[in-house]
Design a protein that fits this description.
The protein is mainly alpha-helical and 231 residues long. The chain contains seven helices and no strands.
Amino acid sequence: MRIISRLTRKLWELMFTIMKKLMKSGNILLLYSLATVFIVASCSTTGMQRSEDVQSSMQIVDDDIKLVVVQLDAIGASLDELTKPGQADTKKAFDLFSGNASKIKEMEKDFSKHAAEMEASGKAYFKEWDSDKQNYDNTEIQKKSDERRAALGETYDKIAQNNIGVKEAFQTYVSDINEIQRFLSNDLTSDGMDSITPISDKVVNNGTQLKYELQNLQKAIENARAEMRRG
């Protein structure tokens, strides 16, 4: 996407350079023709660029999910290790858990930001597609466009369906993990760990459920990307 944007910018810069030379030479007809051709060509790539933007935003969220899934497993393992009965080196186990807690907090911020950007780019893409539907005089082309819009829209809507509750569940999970970390930082005794273990077990289970929900969202994203590439 960035490469395409840079190329488009370079083409505009080249066009302006040529136009300046034509203006100096007084060749108004050639100047007008060049501007018209370039504008038409630029508009014809707009739909492709929007598609690239949507796919790029989905790829970023897909990558985020892959990292988060690995981190959720790491947090669960480190928290289980920390709170297991007879833990010999609680300081080392706590430091490992604390590091994992800090990482998931930053990952949640990135995921939330990128998911919002993905949603916005998707809305813009389909909004522009819907506004273009009036441009077809050929009824057969209009029918094909409507069919593709419906098929892709149905696939893309599954992203929103799978994303229901994920953002809130992710934020709650991160909040719980960081509060457990803060609690244990003040009371890293056997009694302190015993008292927090029932809660930490529940949070680990919540993390497992969150992982499954994120993987379902990831599958919906991958299906939508595949449909867009095929279209």
